[in-house]
């Protein structure tokens, strides 16, 4: 099983960025998928999750700015991030069951 994130990069404060996570080797349509992030030297923080019934969870720090979605036909989960702040800078990891991607770096800076 592989989870491969893409879409990270450098963005100015207030800007948008869209992360994608493509899963292969298994289908996760009946499982929750989600995103967590980690700032160097700090612990892993759950950002958002989307469950098999379409319900979602967001950390308080990203509510109203981030939107998670999934395309089960493509075995892919997305994270649309708007109004980005410098404190959103982190490595973002995709998760499904007990599988993790290698992460994609998001840097919010002017």
Structure description:
- The protein has 110 residues and is mainly β.
- The protein is built from no helices and 11 strands.
- The protein has strands at 2-6, 9-11, 17-24, 33-38, 44-50, 56-58, 66-71, 76-81, 90-96, 99-100, 104-108.
- Strands 2, 4, 5, 6, 9, 10 and 11 form a 7-stranded mixed sheet that branches.
- Strand 4 and strand 5 (44-50) form a beta hairpin.
- The protein is globular.
- The mean pLDDT is 96.
Beginning-to-end CA distance, first to last residue: 37 Å
Overall form: globular
Roughly what percent helix? under 10%
Protein structure class: mainly beta
Strand content: over 45%
User: What is the count of DSSP helices, taking H or I runs of 4+ residues?
Assistant: 0
> Strand-and-helix sequence, N→C?
EEEEEEEEEEE
Q: Biggest β-sheet: count, sense, barrel?
A: 7 strands, mixed
What's the β-strand tally? Answer: 11
What is the typical, i.e. mean, pLDDT? 96
Using only C-alpha atoms, the radius of gyration works out to 13 Å
Low-confidence stretches: none
């Amino acid at each position: 099983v592989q989870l491969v994130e893409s879409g990270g990069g450098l963005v100015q404060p207030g800007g948008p960025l869209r992360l994608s996570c493509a899963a292969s080797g298994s289908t996760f349509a009946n499982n929750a998928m989600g995103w967590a992030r980690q700032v160097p030297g700090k612990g892993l923080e759950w950002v958002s999750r989307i469950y098999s019934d379409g319900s979602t969870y967001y950390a308080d720090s990203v509510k109203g700015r981030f939107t998670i979605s999934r395309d089960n036909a493509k075995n892919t989960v997305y994270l649309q991030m708007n109004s980005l702040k410098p404190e959103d800078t982190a490595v973002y990891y995709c998760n499904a069951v007990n599988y993790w991607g290698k992460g994609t770096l998001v840097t919010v800076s002017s």
